Queue: 2 jobs
Job 1
Amino acid sequence: MSTPAFLQIQNVVKDFNGTKAVNNVSLDIAQGEIFALLGSSGCGKSTLLRMLAGFETPTSGRIVLEGQDLVALPPYQRPMNMMFQSYALFPHLSVWDNVAFGLKREGLPKAQTSDRVEAMLKLVQLSQFGQRKPHQLSGGQQQRVALARSLAKQPRLLLLDEPLGALDKKLREQTQIELVNIIHSVGVTCVMVTHDQEEAMTMASRVAVMSEGRFLQVGAPGDVYETPATRFVADFIGSANLMDGTLLVDEADHCVIACADCQHHVGHGITGTQGMTVAVALRPEKISLSLDKPASDFNAVHGTVQELSYFGSFTLYHLQLASGAKLKVSQANTHRHRDAALQRGDVVWAFWDDTAQVVLTQ
Amino acid sequence: MKSRWTTWFGRGWLSAGYLFLYLPIAALVLYSFNDSPIPNVWRGFSLKWYVALASDEELLAALWLSLKIAFFTACGSVVLGTLAAFSLVKYKRFTGRTLFAGMTNAPLVMPEVVVGLSLLLMLVSVQRLLGFPERGLMTIWLGHLLLGMAYAAVVVQARLSDLNPQLEEAAMDLGARPHQVFWLVTLPMISQSLVAAWLLTFTLSLDDVVLSAFLSGPGSTTMPLVIFSRARLGLNPSVNAVATITVTVVAIGVVVASYLIARAERQRLRDIVTAARP
Amino acid sequence: MTASTSSSWVRGLVRGRTAVIALPFLFLLLFFALPFLIVGKISVSEMDGLAFKDLFTVVDGTVQLSVKFSNYVFLTQDPLYFKTYLSSLQYAAITTALCLFIGYPFAYFMARARSSMQPALLMLVMLPFWTSFLLRVYAWRGLLTEDGWVSDAVIGLGLDHVLLAFGWISSEGMLMHTPFSLVLGMTYTYLPFMVLPLYSQLAKMDLRLLEAAADLGATPWVAFWKVTVPLSKAGIVAGSMLVFIPCVGEYVIPELLGGPETLMIGRVLWDEFFANNDWPMASSVAVVMVLLIIVPLAIFSKYQAEATERGR
């Protein structure tokens, strides 16, 4: 690649008195991407975001935006804006003044500021609310003001800190889509931080899974979900059944792994040595259930339904296997009335394709 | 959950408590209208003590001086107190922080005789070395400033530590330099506590006896000192008249302030209800 | 090139920070800390006419140090001073206890009152607090002299015999200038200082904790002692320190309402300074007074620091 990436994070470390909150991360982000930093609390994602914004200074490493090293710039001079988790709307200013705040710092002529504010309020559909104060707005409305305010200065980079955290489920679904539409229509590059994988996967074009200050995997949501690189990622994103096993056969086009309860026939080869320990990750929705024994000896196991959780659109079954291990299987409830629905205590066969597994060596 | 007994006991205790608090004030006010100079012997209604106040040169001069000192004390205390509060809330680590925190809080409780004595002795030592300052308005102001700063710091600190730090970060993110953040965002949000601190330190200064006694010089007698010397000699109805006026002014101030705050609070609650409606 | 914290804007922030801290810090060092050191120095100085001699003087080319510890010796040996210190601590302790006894239920019922009533109740406590304390103390003189309302009430109820029996007053009918009038005056003046921090703590308490206690089988009385009181501990400490420490060194109230038998160290200091003009003596009295209250002072300072932390 001859042209450097839009945003380059190079070997950034943040050390707080001996604890490395961010431990040597590097990343390239392209212009126009929506990039999500995903991880549970304490993984360092917020610290990294704050370093982008300028509220923390890296202990070492570089952050380069469009060729310009950011570390020399204080937050009030960086060409990026942040939407805060608590929205941080100025309570003593009206909505209009909140959105205009950043523009006034730039010293723009009044007419231009006015136009820009009106445009922003129109973008988030709050044109009538200009004179209200933040406490006179609902949570969703406050968020839209925060978004308008952070886009008013036409930043090169938009930073989102847990954008949907404060909203309830219904509002969240709606807002996710609206938010992405607005970001795309404005065309701004976006880095967001979240602990909610749904948020990350629905909104972002690329996701980085973070833990203990490091990136475990970076990729498109589909890639990260279907091809997790480590046990942690497999378990963190969605849910997965993880089975330890020994590699018996390893060929170019297939391999066989022996686990405690079953034998996996995987439709691709892996680079490994015979006899090595590997883990097989199998997502619950990739497994089918049947009362009859399937044809193949591979990729099948039978167990007793120990628990079942009804989620409306799908049911999650917990099967107890012979070795005592548990297998999670989810079945979409495609028919309204299922006479043949499984009950606790039923003995069933679970089976899957040879493309369904992910073999993990870490 | 509250039993009837608890409710009545509570009401009884509160009533007795308020009676206790207001009894002296009621007595002061009542006897300021007493025609007889002998206290506790009611002779008839009279305004003569108030009339006498108007020509009481000593008291009026002292009042003027006290008001001046109180005004400057309040202004200075708010500035110094806000700086101190800011330092303690925003900056978690700096050399001497424990000492600084201790010194900011100590004047709140330190007996005034100790503070007055020590400040005076220092000023006298300085005077012997450098020839100034003479004891007078400036020195009294200094003592009141020390006390006032401690009170102002407490009031401002309480409000400042409640502030969402993300607000100041948001302001910086949007392009405001640190001093602009203070003037445009932090200050407006603590403005109510600044006013409260100003009024508190004003009252404190107006009422102070001990510090003023140690730090005043010839010709700088404050109103409390005049009242104190008269009170020591015995009961004096002109003092009652001053008291009644003071009580009335303060009462009006407190009632008006409470009403305004309550009204703002009601408005705020109404706004939240409006917002909840789609 | 590694990023470092020596970027110019970070250095600018640090400079700004130093300026903000420095102004109040220097003010306090100069006008609070330094005077204490000077008091210490003067307490060991010789008196020289109406002022005091310098510690170091040059006599015939040699530097002489004249330090006089006799003041301190005198303080510790003279039974009157010892008694006065002790008595000041006792009165302060009694006042604190009374303020707590009256003030805790007061603050409690204020905090449990209907929320629409609370601002008014608070205002009614603030009003005396904002009115000149000098005038209110003066008012007690009127109330406690013969024919005063309170005097009449106490004598009428026969309580003066009770007070006499306890040694709180020295003769029947004379309620002024007695330990009784002093403690009454101090309790009255410092009551708001106890009520306000307590109210603030109690009002913040989550009432659902009491519901949880009741659910687990606690009667209201038990819940009060096991839940409410421990949670309000910080308020109790704050209020007690705000009353106890200044009371030890009170001057105005003992002067106006106290008498010859109410020994208070604040008056002693004042008299040494204004009446006897003995500055070194007054200074030694002050130093010992500060030493006496240094432990409560430390407790108070610690409480304040914790309160700031909790507020975040």
Job 2
Amino acid sequence: MREYTIRRLALFLPTIILATMLVFALFWIVPGDAAYMILTGGDDDAGKVSLEQLEQLKEELGLNRPIYSQYGHWLWDIMRGDLGTSIWYKVPVWDELENRFYVTIELAIMAIVMAMVVAVPLGVISAVKQDTWGDYASRIFALIGIALPTFWLGILMVYGLAYIFNWLPPLGYAKIWDEPFTNLQQLFFPALALAFHDLAFTSRVTRSSMLEVMREDYMRTARAKGLKELVVVGRHALKNALLPVVTISGYQFGRLLGGVIIVESIFVVPGMGTLLIDSITHRDFVVLQGIILIIAAVTLLVNLIIDLLYGVLDPRIRYS
Amino acid sequence: MLDQTGEAVLVKEQSPWLSASGQISKNILNFCRRKPLGAIGGSVVLVLAFVALVAPVLAPYGDREIIREESGKVPVYHSPSYDYWLGTDHVGRDTLSRVMYGARISLYVGGMSVGIGITGFFLLGVFSAYAGGKVDLVIQRIIDAKMALPGLVIALAIVAALGSSLNNVILAIIIGLAPAVVRTVRSQVLSLKEMDYVLAARAVGASPARIMIRHIAPNCFATYLILATYYLGFAIILEASLSFLGVGSPPDVPSWGGMLTMASQAHIKTGPYTAIFPGLAIFIVVLGFNLLGDALRDVFDPRLRGTGS
């Protein structure tokens, strides 16, 4: 177990360094350069920038240094918690991001909880009652859920809520620790739209994983020794079947953070996603880089935690 | 005697060709009987390809044509009717025609990104697994790092940096495909490269490139086909998402995602139909690709047979 944990942690370091390199590289495929963009404030108006100004700013920003030196400085700043200064808003990126970060994380956690709470029972019932109408219904539901584009579902939800049920969420975003009830009202439907794909996918994975486990010999043994069906399914089957489900959910988390961008812009949630779209419109690459870096870090961290959890859940990994 | 031989030769020459075409149609029939859902998916894909091909002939109006009725009126947000089967949009363009032309965009973007992306990353996966050692380790770490960046996020960043055009969208989608494809192919090749026939090929002095291309890659063809089918659906959704967010295809291009952008902003009350049909098209097409992919996986991958979900 300890060896596994150490090995997994050791693997984490090069991965996250490579991820920062990828994010840094993204900044460098931008045509034109950062100094020019900062001086023009994102507007494409070459007239108001003089060549001396440009050279001076390049010197200040260190854009004349070799690229590995720039990367080093950038990485050092990030490790001290400095994500740079926004080109458009002219404030430190983290100040702009902080509150939005919590909103997005709350949305993502709500979606994951929703997906798991519905998907696992659905998958289990589907597997236990294989080839009954309940199984078919939940499989059709899963097929539909996977093919349904998140943004279309979001638009239909907004339309249905606003014009068919005449319901609008309370205006003005409320923080969860200030007004928890208002906050939940505001985030429930965005989270549901976000959860839907995950929910369908997870129920499918749960079903096939359960079916595989239920063919094992120890299931027959458990029944043969007279255990109640509920214990057989719950303790012997589900516990083993959940391992792949947990792993897949970890990989799905990255996808979820991508979906957040779409859902936030449809439901107008003040999270990182809406800021990301804003920063693209304003060509504010410093903010864009910051958001992408945070998303990458969170995704990697979640996968690390899940892999470590895997070691706890699965004795085969612990003892090998 | 001579005649008989001649006839025999003729029959012998004909029969492989006859049985080949007979075999294919028999296989297709068999597939339809055993996998009705897969057959439905396949039909959806065929219909999509057909509509994309003949869109200019089928569509009642042009994709960018603003309709002017005889009275001089422009039908803005017309409900579905005999003249406009799926209604019209906010500037008076026919939704049905735009959905038909949109099939071309979806298929072009999906086909290009999957054709280039899956093929390239398929070969990279084969190479990574076959080379093994340090090469494999480095490639896998890069893929791990790339996994931290969700497909949509990296696609947004690339399109934001390079500007919105269909080809940049394709490039963005290709990069988004990398992790899943490389990982899947690699894990399969890892077991294939231990096979006796690979050892035999190496023993007679075949070069690594020849072994990879002639002996290993063809044996992963089923995986390639399944991945391509699934990721076509994925690519279509990704393109639609980018266009929906306003950074994908340029606004005048009739992309299904782009058509939904206007619908989501305030226009939804006046013209809900514009929000429904393009989304429905994406949904049906992606469902079709997924159903076909599921059926292909069940047929080609015996390990999963029966557990199919």
